[in-house]
Amino acid sequence: MSTPIDNPYTRGMASFISNVSLEDVPDDVRERLKLLILDALGCALYGADLEWTRILIATLSAVDETRTTGLWGTSRRLSPLNAALVNGTMVQGFELDDVHRNGVLHVGAVTLPALIALAETRPGMTGADFLTAAVAGYEIGPRVGMCMGQEHIAQGWHSGATVGVFSAAAGAARALGLSTDQTVHALGIAGTQSAGLMAAQFGAMVKRMHAGKSSQSGLYGALLAEGGFTGIHHVFEAEYGGFCTTFSRSQDRFDRDQLTAGLGESFEIMRIALKFYSCVGSNQTTLDAVRLIRERRPFELEELDRIVVHASEVTFHHTFWRYEPAGMTSAQLNLPFCVATLLIEGEVFVDQFGDDDISDPARIELSRKVEVVEDPAITALGSKFRHKVWVEVFLKDGSRHEETVESARGSEHRFATAADVIAKFETLAGKTLPPEQVGQLRDAILGLEELPRAAEIGRLLCPLPS
């Protein structure tokens, strides 16, 4: 007699993935999702010509002779699996893409590359099908992140790499029309491929690749499950070697109920934030706080004595170390350096992180005046408030100026207007594609429900023949 399978969380998520339809999704959620997709694709197109993208394309092109799937912003093509790896790296390529703060996940970077690879290689997928699959991907990954809590990243795992596989697998499974049983296995295959170390933030190019690897792993999971390959059927429930028990220090550090509570009724899509500073999400609230203080009390750099940022344990560990030039990744994650950049440049966007900028002696010297301290009161608020900061600016005239910011501009609580999102997309995409094509891609995404062929998305993401 076979032992019953005890996997209510894994199966509950799989059932949602395989059965969700657009009719189940409120109009405001669908509209928000299309803006999130547009933002992610703009970020990817800007990342198409960055150094790590070029190295990845050259390396994979030498070992992968398949030419079915486009590498966004280029005329190059690879297999669907390696295209997902490259394109996911592009989305995460410049620290500008979305973030689900509570789940600590860049959702578009892991969901869309796998999904668009399938749209290009599996005929018959419509824009509505694509949007439905995106709902599955954008809902599942954040819930896994919420289940694991902020301790997951605090202990050194990069959640974009570990948690992201489930978003990719979910989106791909729904796009392939997998059954609930097959989707259980897709999640189990994806989960066993989870990996990613947070030490990558200290200057390594590989941090950019984590999202792409997650997207690739999730796509592997869905494709293999479609072919009958089996995975860990209780990937979230297993007490020994399961995802939750392996990636958390102890049982009281994760909450499996987060995986399915309100699934299909309360949409995490509405809690995904966008970035308007080109740096890690944990830095955005501090930059807003400093900007607000300086608007109230304009000061010159010579007037500044020091800045103290009171932050959560996660923000402290994630963003604070003595900055030394170690590549763009390190510059974009280091909070003191980003504050110094804002104070000197007045902005922290794509044009503030050139090779000369990240080794600028003036910025480095100014960064030494910024201290980050862990505030137990903020940490105690939990992962929903992990980006909250209380910033103090001390001037040489003896005055002290402070600001508390819980949510940065573009966050789920202060979400950007459609016009702001479109403007950001057009600015970033325009670095790679001509204006007419940027407009066509924009219109295709904003009108996904009416798009006859989802493969058109992949076509418009690559330069069109003249």
Give a topology summary.
Elements: H1 8-19, H2 27-46, H3 51-63, E1 69-70, E2 77-78, H4 80-91, E3 99-100, H5 107-121, H6 127-148, H7 151-154, H8 159-162, H9 164-176, H10 180-191, H11 206-226, H12 243-246, E4 272-273, H13 284-296, E5 304-311, H14 313-319, H15 328-333, H16 335-345, H17 361-367, E6 370-374, H18 376-379, E7 389-395, E8 400-405, H19 418-429, H20 435-446, H21 455-460
Parallel strand pairs: 5-6
Antiparallel strand pairs: 1-2, 3-4, 5-7, 7-8
Helix pairs in contact: 1-6, 1-9, 1-10, 2-4, 2-19, 3-4, 4-5, 4-11, 5-6, 5-9, 5-11, 6-9, 9-10, 9-11, 10-11, 13-16, 16-17, 19-20
Distance between the termini: 65 Å
Order of strands across the widest beta sheet? 6-5-7-8
Name given to the CATH architecture of the largest domain: Orthogonal Bundle
**Total of DSSP H or I helical runs spanning 4+ residues:** 21
Question: Do you know the CATH topology of the largest domain?
Answer: 2-methylcitrate dehydratase PrpD
Number of domains: 2
Order of helices and strands: HHHEEHEHHHHHHHHEHEHHHHEHEEHHH
User: What is the C-alpha radius of gyration, as a whole number of Å?
Assistant: 21 Å
Outline:
This protein is an alpha+beta fold.
Explain what this protein looks like in three dimensions.
With 466 residues, the chain is of the alpha+beta class. The protein has two domains: 8-273, Orthogonal Bundle (2-methylcitrate dehydratase PrpD); 281-405, 2-methylcitrate dehydratase PrpD (60s Ribosomal Protein L30, Chain: A). It has 21 helices and eight strands. The longest helix is centred in the first third of the chain and has 22 residues, at 127-148. The termini are far apart.
